[in-house]
Amino acid sequence: MKFKYLIFLPLALFFFFSCQKNEVSKVTIKQNLLVDLSKLNNEIILFQKLTTNNSSEKEIIEQFKKSRLSYKKVEWAIEYFIPETARFMNGPALDEMELEENKSFEPHGFQVMEELIYPKYEVSSKEELNREIAIFLSNIKQVKSNFEVITISDDYVLDALRENIVRVIALGITGFDSPILQSSIPETAESLMAIPSCLETINSNSKIVKDLKKITLEAKKYCAENNNFNSFNRAIFITKYLNPISRKIKEFQTEEKIKTVNKNSPLKATITTLFDKDAFNVNAFVISDDYKFSTEKAILGEKLFYDKSLSKNNNRNCATCHHPEKAFTDGLKTNVSLTGINLARNTPTLTYASLQNAQFWDMRQLDLEKQSVDVIQNKDEMHGSMEEIHAKISQNEGYKKLFKKAFPKTLKPEPWQIQNALASYIRSLNALDSRFDEYMRGNENSLTAQEINGMNLFMGKAKCATCHFTPLFNGTVPPSYSKTEHEVIGTPNEISGKRLSLDVGRYLYNKMPQLVGAFKTPTVRNVAKTAPYMHNGVFTTLEEVVDFYNKGGGKGLGYEVDNQTLPFDELKLTKKEERDLVAFMKTLTDKKYQ
Fold it and tell me: Where does it reside (predicted)?
């Protein structure tokens, strides 16, 4: 019997220590986070001492940079697990708005501090800067308290790290969170180093982790050797480093049999890279399961889209204003009413409209179902009646068959299903098959040198990607892609630039001064087919659009736009850079429109 115990004892010890190892691994990630948060706290305290003691501008800025680098080590976890606090640690230096309640909250964090110390630090800003530092220290304390009590499982760690790659691509290397100081490139390196460190705690013997260490070190070296923000080659960095890192994370998940986090997010948790053809989920923006996309619904919706009986006089359908060959725009400066009068706004593209949570230029509707009713019942557009349309369709045998296929659980067509079918057709218009997409998926020959340079400008010096986020190139904010932004850019009323557009935009529905002249950020995808541009169609060419932004928008042109969210300093793009930028935007055209 004693011999048997000796045989089983090593096995028992093996299983005991294996379980202990798994528990320790999970604790280690948390412990590492808490240690790094303490280091961040110490860096901020040192920053506070320098500002309090009136140290030199150089010392203050250098310590600020060190503090940001320290934050980047823990950003992956703070942004994922405690996003409400993260917004006030490294969010945009713009008021946070709750439009439903017409309330706004002043911004806090690194980007606010950045504006106070750079490009020139004045001692007069000391009090305000120290107030921001105190708030930041309080937020660190709150974050530490949260991490001390929450459980961080392996599946959520992988999901957080995957999101962090997206953050680096769409917000990091674009300069979104360091718009003035432009310290994004060295910070990117710090963000990436957290990946192998975390995965090593899950399985330190994994070959994939060793491969990840090698790639991330190479990426860090590339950042160190190419640390100039304006000349940094984002095309190379994404395709040679970030996409391979993302693929390795997926491989590791498969190897370790770690489950995928189940969440209803526009960006699927199952992605291999951000540029997968099926990376985005249109169902993330539907209001319930009954409204989910299906091919049968889209087929029905397409028939409805071209049916003139949806309008009052049976003389206009959806395609009247959304021409398929023009990427579902109409080519007009502004739309034309049923009576031939020019309306106030340009017809936006329907392509990729489903990958945003706000419709119309003024964002007055939150989903495509409500958008369709708004247009159909608008007296200037279709002047139809949903009740009359429903009655017609209910008596049409052809429609009844299509409705039965699209909605098999219902006995007869219902009004909401008309809306849902139209919306489903629009949800089918996201091809994601442009030459840019091909390049990001490995076809290096799909873009020319000029177009690649244009891409680097778009995501760098020209600052386009800080509002038109990669890869949707609209205002839907990464890495969750669940909220769509508006911007105030100071659009002129006419090309000569003598006065501002009188259209108040979002302010019409939310009477907040920050929203005067605010409009949804549209997608740049298919932009070569959707001229003219802006909410009022004021610009007829992409060259005119680039020139407007190059000069700093409305405020840069000398207009009074106190609430302009677009940076109003000149971009100082050369004529060649402007041409390259336009060349890149033309690569975003879907195959069917090429």
Answer: Cell envelope
